[in-house]
# Entry
Amino acid sequence: MFKTFQTYKLLFIRLILIIAAIEISVHFFKIDLIFTGVFGLFIVFLLIREIYFYVRNFVLLYDKTISSILQNDFTSDFSKHKFNRSYNDLFHLYDTLKNKQNEEVSKDIIYRSILNNIETGIIILQKQDSDWNIFLMNEYFSKQFNVPKVSKWKYLKNQLPSLCEIIEEDDFQEIKTSIEISINEQNKQTFVLQASRTEIFEKDYFIVLLDSIQNVVEKKEKDAWVNLMKVISHELLNSITPIRSICQNLQDLVEQDSLSAEDLEDIKNSVETMLRRSDHLQKFVEGYRKLAMLPSPKKEEIELQHLIDNCLQIMNPLFKENQIEVLSNIAFKRWINVDSQQVEQVLINLLTNCIYAVKNAELKQIIISAEAKENRTFIKISDSGNGIEKEIENKIFLPFFTTRNEGAGIGLTLSKNIIEAHGGYISFKTEEGRTVFEICLVE
# Structure
């Protein structure tokens, strides 16, 4: 405000000087000092000319700056005017908006770079009147569907009619479905289509995401094979390496001319060691075969409480031996359609894990509860152990992963496969310091 007042003050001083020069010139004419009066008028002319150019330059500079701001053109250089303090606020506004635009441009470049490197087809549409324009199409979408980066919806429709027709049928509203698209007249591929609509600053946008199911499945299969091969190679090396070393030692012994009693004892111990490692390998292979050849469930109606009681009866000697308190909090009757033998195996596996979890705990307690919601039955088994460590939470369902020396590492994997074969799922979480495994069965 002070700087604006300074500008007005300068204009006011110039006007006072002009008026004063006119009065003085008139006075000189009255006292017949013609040449002095003419000189005074010349001064008045110079003052008027100076104020004209001052106002003109001031207005032109403001117009140019405001025009640049309105047109988002921040290429102008006003450095030669910055010494004039009258323009400080104007140039401060200009520089602030210029910095904000540079920041937005930088963000836009970064976001577009991220979107272009995502292995998901992305197009963003922007509504203009009654038509849709393509606001953004990432590189993956363009390459995956062999579509040039067009700017109009009608052009995209000519390239991918099957996709555009589905979107138009739903009137550009939220969509989540699968779609088959033929690319370059090749075999059709299946994609997951997800679309959403949003309004930002009174502008309508429609966002479309396309994921190749084939790519997702291949990635999952690859990850599964990598994890499996790591486990298999680890187990094989753990057994083959010592067996090979023992065989080398035995070869050296049998090549001797005579064998002492000590040599015979070494041979006996070596054979026993190889037998133990061979048994371990056999169990490992049998465990893998058990996972790979899981039979389809033979479902039958069974009462939930009866199923739980059968498992507790089987496990009761181990509970007594380890002095574990077991609480069954199932206060309702519920018939479920399952393969009772397979689900019993799942419950026994989970209860066995609970026994090891509470082995060194002060309070040795296992709680079994259940809940029924519409067509779903939830069975929860929790223990008072120390819980599952964060580092291994994402590994506990992997085949052959175990934290016990005597464990085979297939219990939880087998349990997961059985429940999924029944159309349900198994998960775990921590509630009030307790590890809780939850089985969900869907009727």
Notes: DSSP finds eleven helices and twelve strands in the chain. The mean pLDDT is 77. Residues 316 and 326 are 9 Å apart (CA to CA). The longest helix spans residues 213-254.
